[in-house]
């Protein structure tokens, strides 16, 4: 799963600090100081294993959502953040920031339900339950709930769901996930758009059946026992055929949720009002306490941090989806008990890392030397410490993925500042004691400091480092081509659902290498490709988890990345709001339980 940005530089494709998708978390929003508040010793953030995510029953899928203690209806909630939402058409949503706001007006067949103990259940959202399969996931049946309506009062039917999936094949929808599209055509090894072009020429997709207005049956081209998790992604949200405006739908989607869009001024503001045709009795996860949401864009993390700290005017009723506490204000916030009462902390499902271009650096000992020399601790300190940046990572998969195993092949936890002597020994093995590496980075104030630390550490180990600053707004355009001219560059990823398949295959399956795709390391190892196929064929989640953990070790043994952080989120909100919580699925603040005090 991708996030729209790194917290210190605008990104457009892969994940970011203070961002997205499947984890246990520290709770917030209830007025009590979270773990590690001022006046206590700062404890490291903990995270529940993904085994705590379960599949709920039909009873778990019924509405209304449990009431939030002390909540009341009315008022306007304000949201202040850095960027406008790049996409709101659900088919084009694949980043957490877009997904977070979409939960207010877009519903899927399934969704995630959280309780106050941090447990997470997959439940039916539009569907009565999480779907049924009798052939190990090759055929899936979902039944829609009674009382589902669009914002104009018309019913949401199985035909709408079928159409929502068919339109994903259109040539203008290229930004969202493509799991279902690949599985709904005859041959998963051929481009799915070569096999079906979408519904706009009048043709239907015969692998989706709608025997009646309430039933949808998906016939997949292989066994996918976790397809019910797939359709929980916002990218598979419902779109009505009668109101599909194609490309224009991206700015004004038609609501199936508790709110509808009444105004959207690009890069300036978004306004939502209650959708009177949303029935809370059909919805197990959402509330509609505020009358309105007013969202404002163009504010950097330092600006929003200062406004939350001042807590004046309408900022008392404000939150932010994505912006974290600015690194330079972290210690000040940690030292203020009153601010900590309205702070949120949580471990996100993202692992960030520095890609090593294996197409350019072909000697594995050189790659291992880079990891061994890397100044992980110095970078963590420059980015605000563990609570702001994250825990130092040593694996590909996040602790939030089922099957995660902790290991440290390069002794990074014992020597997080880097080990230049051990790195020199690895370079001696390579026969290239003083290799030149090109390090590409976002040209921002913090990253300039990080680059100095990286150059110093690698130089001590014998490397010659050429630093290449990149424009943050076009960063992924620069590193995306397979023939890019860089050796090391930052990235990040989180599983689209909590299995190793979506954490590992998109990035490290060598058969998927192409321009602007997630395999930024260009790693292509036949043994790893084969292991991916075998792991995907395992239906038992525990055994599959073990297989993905073994592949994680294979990738790290190839030294394809320098793991950076298991990302954390640390944010503030206004004193006039209640029900503000950290969303462990999206890795940022959630609006679903918010109310004005």
UniProtKB/TrEMBL annotation:
UniProt cross-references to InterPro entries, sorted A to Z: Peptide/Ni-bd, SBP_5, SBP_5_dom
Keywords: Signal
Pfam families given in the database record: SBP_bac_5
Signal peptide positions (record): 1-26
Record's keyword annotation contains Cell membrane: no
Domain Solute-binding protein family: 121-509
Protein name, UniProt field: ABC transporter substrate-binding protein
